[in-house]
Amino acid sequence: MILPIVAYGDPVLRKKATVINENYPKLDALIENMFDTMYGARGIGLAAPQIGLAIRVFIVDASPFEDDEDLTEEEQQLCANFKKVFINAKIVEEEGDEWAFNEGCLSIPNITEDVFRQPTITIEYHDEDFNKHTETYDGIVARIIQHEYDHIEGILFTDKLSVLKKRLLKSKLTNISKGKIDVSYRMKFPKAKKKR
To answer: What residues are annotated to the active site?
Structure first.
């Protein structure tokens, strides 16, 4: 089932998400709905806060990068088969010299900007069967994970931009939060505050 994606300005995107356990109700259905929603919006990652749930769950499918000519053949092959569920993830290490890559976000449509991130991460997480993993990733896969991980920490990619860039984007972001945007997938916009 395709769910609406929460738009920039909704407080749920700013909450630090909470840990869940294997008894979380209808977790399998939630994960399936998240994949349906992500594919419906042509995304490569989606975090639970983006569908209105402040829980530590995100999904990634890097396969759209398998044909990216800017990547090495090895990176393309990794992306081709990289589809994962991350539950209760914790990045334990980030290393290397920061590099820029143009990022976008389903909650912030029609805006992309270069974001600097470290290239290598080590992450602990549970998969959908609640098996625990500790894995190291680098390059584009690490970046996708870092972006989605930020969502469960209440951080958006626009937070990582310069003061000047943020100022230049302010009116676009305001329009997104008010629903003044043309987008090809279902979105849920923040409710306007009532004047007293």
So the answer is: 148
